[in-house]
Amino acid sequence: MDELNRKTVEEFRAAEKHPVIVVLDNVRSMHNVGSIFRTADAFLIESIYLCGYTPRPPHRDIQKTALGATETVHWEYFSSTADAVQQIKAMNGALWAAEQAEGSIDLDKINWDMLTQHATKRKTAILFGNEVTGVDDHILSLCDGCMEIPQTGMKHSLNISVAAGIVLWEVYRSIRNNNS
């Protein structure tokens, strides 16, 4: 592990984070939650908001996939996703849902430079919904926009942890490119 030049827990906590909040709207799988924690750690995401019945640490099934990321990534719990959205809006944050919805923008067409430039002045939150039902319609109506991952196969859906990995990589890549 030394050769990988990984941060210690203390170094991670002290490191400057990317001003991105991941919001999980009633995600049911502990393994998905753990995987998203691990991805958020990998890309120095500022925070995860766990909403509704989304499982919360500490739990061994979350830890199985998080591999300690629940100790590094800041997280908060909200009894409802609407409460989390209200907090994001109070911070003047932008809220985008990762969802297949009418009017959604393909991920490869998102102007990440614009989003990440806003992120330097305000937070950008990306909302991921329930594995079966997606993001609640009421919550979608509160979002600034929707993005979706273009897909051409038969299923037209991805596991939430895979989708979060793809979206957060694009955010990270854009922020990294803007800072170089």
Describe this protein's structure:
This protein is an alpha/beta fold. It has a single domain, classed as Alpha/beta knot. 39% of the residues lie in helices and 20% in strands. It has seven helices and seven strands. α2 runs parallel beside α3, α2 packs parallel to α7 and α5 crosses α7. The longest helix is centred in the last third of the chain and has 20 residues.
Show the helix and strand layout:
Blueprint: H1 9-14, E1 18-25, H2 30-42, E2 45-51, H3 60-66, E3 74-78, H4 81-90, E4 94-98, E5 105-106, H5 112-121, E6 124-128, H6 137-141, E7 145-148, H7 160-179
Parallel strand pairs: 1-2, 1-6, 2-3, 4-6, 4-7, 5-7
Distance between the termini: 27 Å
Average predicted confidence as pLDDT: 90
Q: Main beta sheet: strand number and arrangement?
A: 7 strands, parallel
| Count of discrete structural domains | 1
> Which structural class should the secondary elements be placed in?
alpha/beta
Q: What is the name of the CATH architecture?
A: 3-Layer(aba) Sandwich
How many alpha or pi helices? 7
| CATH class category label | Alpha Beta
State the CATH topology: Alpha/beta knot
Strand fraction? 15-25%
Q: Calculate Rg over CA atoms.
A: 15 Å
